[in-house]
Write a structure and sequence with these properties.
LysR family transcriptional regulator, about 25% strand, about 35% helix, alpha+beta, about 325 residues, six-stranded mixed sheet
Length: about 325
């Protein structure tokens, strides 16, 4: 029996709470995962897992063994990574997830740079706005926007963006340009509802260092980024989006900024990964590269008035609504 592989399989079964999901994330047949766990229990002469029809539970011996396995596997990975610079560098499959707009406009155009720098890392990149269970879905790292809450995750801030409130010229011709927040009660908006909770995400504005939320009436609510921005461009109502997403439309005149004196609350952009996992070399270099990439984009590094040289000049469709130092965190409602 390969005891190192058995430890890896056992910890993955515990992390995903499923033999099937563990098999999928390890690219092993489910029968092989079952056999490996059975052989491990026979070798140790203890029961590690209590299996029920709904879930798996660690026995006291299993819990103790799991904690030691996590430390051993982390030590092995750290030892191997110490030789990375004298060898071929980080390698292996790396699964990441990020909002579609950030992926399409910022990350993917620079992906050749990452591949040239780290040719032995095989990236699997997923795009989506919904929260991802990193452990159960076998995702190594996600890029997320907004306040982060889940204590089972660690977040490193890699950027920030400033929102903008905008509308199409056609909409403003019909309804006028709002001059104060009170004027918004006479306007309509394209509303965005959370895919996770189903609630409408209100617009917000910073007034005298306070954040004021404004509930807007609107003829339509969507939970798709491209549909949201497209409705704004077509004149359905006001929208509140990240400036880096609105910039091509502001440049072309298809959107006009309104209420510029009251900006939406800036949102942090974070790379998020599980806190109970050793930060592997491939995750570390991806996070470092992403932070470097965002730093090169003025609109994503806190320079809100900059003309961003790293964004495309052609129009594209998407939307961002609310949603450093590593901190314990998890993902709040986010649309990017």
């Amino acid at each position: 029996m390969d005891r190192l592989q058995a430890m890896q399989v056992f910890t993955r079964v515990v992390d995903t709470n499923s033999f099937s999901r563990a098999a999928d994330t390890l690219d092993l047949p489910r029968a092989s995962v079952t056999t490996i766990i059975q052989n491990l229990e026979a070798h140790l002469n203890v029961r590690l897992l209590q299996r029920t029809t709904r879930r798996l539970n660690l026995t006291p011996d299993g819990a103790a063994y799991y904690e030691r396995c996590v430390r051993i596997l982390a030590d092995i990975e750290e030892t191997e990574s110490s030789f990375a610079h004298s060898g071929k560098g980080p390698r292996g499959k790396l699964r990441v997830d990020m909002p579609g707009s950030i992926g399409r406009m910022i990350v993917m155009p620079a992906m050749c740079e990452f591949h040239t720098r780290y040719p032995d890392i095989e990236l699997m990149v997923g795009f989506g706005d919904k929260p991802v269970d990193l452990i159960q879905e076998g995702v190594d790292c996600v890029i997320r926007v907004g306040t982060l809450q889940d204590s089972s995750l660690v977040a490193r801030r890699i950027g920030v963006f400033q929102g903008v409130t905008a509308a199409s010229p056609q909409y403003l011709e019909r309804h006028g340009v709002p001059q104060t927040l009170e004027d918004l009660q006479h306007h309509t908006a394209v509303n965005y509802f959370s895919s996770r909770t189903g609630r409408i995400i209100d617009m917000d504005f910073i007034v005298d260092d306070r954040t004021i939320e404004v509930k807007m009436n609107g003829p339509i609510a969507v939970n798709d980024a491209e549909a949201y921005l497209n409705c704004g461009v077509k004149g359905v109502g006001l929208v509140q989006i990240a400036r880096f997403m609105a910039l091509p439309y502001l440049r072309s005149g298809e959107l006009v900024e309104v209420l510029p004196q009251w900006k939406p609350l800036p949102m942090p952009i974070s790379a998020v990964y599980p806190h109970n996992r050793h930060l592997s070399p491939k995750v570390r270099v991806f996070v470092d590269w992403a932070a470097e990439l965002f730093e090169r984009c003025p609109l994503l590094s806190g320079q809100e008035d900059a003309e961003d040289r790293c964004l495309p000049t052609s129009t594209s469709s998407s939307k961002t609504v609310k949603h450093g130092t590593p901190e314990v965190a998890g993902t709040a409602d986010v649309v990017v």
